[in-house]
Amino acid sequence: MRCLIAAVLVFGPGAAAAQDPPTGEASHAIVATPDRITWGPAPPALPPGARVAVLEGNPSEAGPFTMRVNLPDRYRIPPHHHPSTEHVTVLSGTFNVGMGEKFDATAMTPLPAGTFAALSPGVRHFAEARGETILQLHGVGPWELTYVNPADDPRRRTP
Q1: Is residue 1 part of a domain?
Q2: What are phi and psi of 35, to 5 degrees?
Q3: In this structure, what are the phi and psi dihedrals at residue 156, rounded to the nearest 5 degrees?
Q4: Residue 2 pLDDT > 80, yes or no?
Q5: Domain containing 79: what range?
Q6: 25-83, pLDDT tens digit by residue?
């Protein structure tokens, strides 16, 4: 509350008000409390075992999106990249991330809960969860994932 009062005093009464949406866009508010989030299977681009909750938008379509990804302990994502900037916030657990075209567990950096990262389009990276890990991803869709080694792509595997 003190921050809100300070913003009004410093920037004037309009500083605390929400901005009007651009012409033609409807205003909206999304509130996603942890107990009301619905988890489902992850997209087929991710290895089996992850769960996803889409909080805003549709990651498979053009436009802004926010989703959470729940990864079990030791969950690995082989080297891959994305065509647009990937914004990641670690909400719980530890997300170990390495850069490059080959998975190398010795070259990973642990990202503990509270970490934010943004990776530019095309940056090759790989990851592994330590403990159950929940990430929040946001960006502008469509969200896509391209594996460095096509054989790592779970979409290519036959059941």
Answers
A1: no
A2: -75, -10
A3: -90, -10
A4: no
A5: 21-156
A6: 567 788 989 899 999 999 999 999 999 999 999 999 999 999 999 999 999 999 999 99
pLDDT digits (tens, 9 = 90+) for 78-124: 999 999 999 999 999 999 999 999 999 999 999 999 999 999 999 99
Which H or E element spans position 131? strand 125-141
Query: What is the domain-level CATH number for residue 76?
Result: 2.60.120.10
Compute CA distances 9 → 13, 33, 59, 150, whole Å.
7, 31, 39, 56
Phi/psi for 151 (5° steps) reads: -65, -20
Instruction: Round to the nearest angstrom and report the end-to-end CA distance of the chain.
Output: 54
Residue 145 · residue 46 · CB < 8 Å:
yes
14 in a domain, yes or no? Answer: no
**Total number of domains constituting the chain:** 1
55 assigned to some structural domain: yes
Instruction: Please report where in the chains the tokens 């009004």 appear, as a residue.
Output: 8
